[in-house]
Amino acid sequence: MSARTRRLPLVLTLLLISTGLMNAAPATALPAATVGSGFSDVPTRHSYYTEISWLADNGIATGYSDGQFKPLNPVTRQAAAWFFYRFSGSPAFTPWRVPAFSDVPNRSSSVTPISWTAYTRVATGYSDGRFRPRDTVTRRQVAAFLYRLAGSPSYTPPSSPEFRDVSRTNRSYKVISWLADTGIAKGYGDGTFKPGYPVTRQVMAAFLYRFNAKFGAPGFTPPANPGDVKNCSDFSTWSGAQKWYEKYYPFYGDVAGLDTDNDGYACPSLPGFTSGDVCTSPTRKLSGPPSSGFSTQGYYVHNNMWNTSYALGPETLAACSYHSWYVTSRQTNHAGAVLTYPNVHKDYNFPRVSSFSTLTSRFAAKGPRTGIYNVAYDIWLNGVADRNSTEVMIWTENYRQVPSGSKVTSATFGGRTYDVWKTSDNRYVAFVPRTVMYSGTLDLLAMLKWLQGRGWLSSTATLGQVCFGVEVVHTGGTTARWDFTDFAITDS
Hints:
- The chain is an alpha+beta fold.
- Helix content is 21%, strand content 23%.
- It has helices at 10-19, 49-57, 77-87, 111-120, 139-149, 173-181, 201-215, 238-252, 444-454, and strands spanning 4-5, 278-279, 284-288, 292-296, 299-303, 315-321, 324-329, 343-347, 359-366, 372-381, 390-399, 406-413, 416-422, 428-433, 439-443, 463-474, 480-491.
- The longest helix has 15 residues, at 201-215.
């Protein structure tokens, strides 16, 4: 895992803690079960019958479609988020437009409880920007979750360890000791706690049942609605505006109208704007020439120094992940030719464009505003960079670059107007926005269908590759850097 500067809401939650705004509602214990468990695999003689019945009766957990609870199944991190969210009363909460975690998109059925746990700091993600929702949750992790769910109370752990496998130097020593001292969790007969063991559904039921008996259900009180009281001019930096925006958005939306283009980022014109995750401690570096790359999580990270017709200068792509990377390059001008295209891309096995119901992509990137370059999507159809292929580009940040072909018309997608350039044979098309886009979400399918409707792209066109990177022409006599801080493709 690599260190990086996290976007909000992590910074937001620190603000909430420091200002006391993340207070839980007064705790009230949930009632005991009034009916049986209702599960065919949890009879009255079951060791956890009382706890599972209470969990089900209070709507904290449901069973499976076959009528079973499956008490020995391990709990995943997304299931744990659902447990804590329902235990807290299923508060009204709208996830941020920019997802809190790269692997929990807004279309996920678990995005609301996972985003809520991020807001309240009950559960946090990993330093690579992911939540890992399908990972099994461990006993040490649940100890930390429940400690935070209780409000991170003041607690001094004992000087002598209670469990022989949890020493005082163990990073989870405090929360595990707290869990044991409150009576929420017990160790094993051999004197161990087994912190790395998975938590099963029956054990989670027992933990929450005992938590309720000790503290009551945690509840949750959102911040009061501030109303339309802020303008971008009220903030000196982007981070200040973003903190304010993300604090209130889950409950009241963009109440002050700071996110004018509805991309999840407030006041991007303010100093310090950086969307997504800035890569600060890369795990891989690709230096060239020549070109090089690696695959990760369904994407290919590619330092593509393709134009070997010229003497290329040094270029290094440094990656924390496929959605967080930067490139430094020093190139001289060779009659305006594009020299390199460092990028991340997803390969497709040439399905027809018409077979997609969804093809969207979110992005965030910012260049140095020196030399000549364009940050852009590069979509290859009917092949990939061969004599039969069609290239469709969507530029997001253009600095002194001119597309091939000629400007033929304009089009509007998602509220943004693009000038459309193309060659006479329709083998190259470029959508060039009239204003810079440092971040956002693009409906790639809508743009491709628009081309098909114009007859510039065949109705039987197939998709080969979707890339996002920067076309570098030259760097103005210096080593220039581009930061790519968010990227993902959603398709179905």
